[in-house]
Amino acid sequence: MNRGMATTRPYALGHSAEEIARLEMQAQLRDPSTRWLLAEAGIGPGMKVLDVGSGAGDVAVLAADLVGPSGSVVGVDANPAVLERARERMRATGRTNVAFVCGNLHDVALDGDFDAVVGRAVLAHQANPPETLRSVTRHLCRGGIVAFQEIQMMGEPFDVPPSPLHKQMWDWTIRGFMQAGIDMAMGLKLHQVFLDASLPAPHMYLVAPVGGGLDWAGYDFLAMAFRTALDLAQTHGLATIEEVAALDVETFANRLRDEVVRQNGVITFAPYVGAWTRKP
Hints:
Layout: H1 3-7, H2 17-41, E1 48-52, H3 58-67, E2 72-77, H4 80-93, E3 98-102, E4 114-120, H5 129-137, E5 140-151, H6 164-179, H7 186-196, E6 203-207, E7 210-211, H8 218-235, H9 241-247, H10 252-262, E8 267-268, E9 272-278
Parallel strand pairs: 1-2, 1-4, 2-3, 4-5
Antiparallel strand pairs: 5-9, 6-9, 7-8
């Protein structure tokens, strides 16, 4: 068994059209905080950036905007189908400073002169996050930037006033995703993960989208996440078909919207923790 095989497992959520759509909607809500993290870490014009676990290329687009035409971004993902979607998006937007490589994060053949390595919601899916981080930072030049953003979804949601429907979705999401092997508390573990990867202690920030009212896009995204969580729950024997049917996920977005608006409330997404440091 080689090094990559020992520490890498397939993406638990798959790469269906529905999952890609969920990730693209997630990007619309998460991109502002990710862009801020990359800029705060020091990514700027002329840099060469490696985006790991690139998926459909959402983070690669943010990095490409920051490095400009004089810089470049290389996205790496193990799934060729999702990378073709990423390439289509780059062609549609006319971006010429982004390329994608299909390969395992642990042994993909790349140059070793990147100025930064970045990723969003990647380490939570790894069997051995410090080993993954060690593997990808070998492509960095000395003093290069390491910036990752990971979920911190544990305990209770931050809703005012409390939203019973959001709490229901929150609890099922934690159960379903964790049963699939996704670490829903990776965000605050980033400090230790960076240290275990022989990196300096990172600067860290916690952020989350908050929304309410009639027109917030978050309701539809939460319904998509709920559906994914219930699919995982069924797959891993946590819920029966009857239990899932009773939760009526098809009307969840509208019911959640009605509940929040009726209470004049706001609901908060699961926070993401951003962490960055520089390679010694």
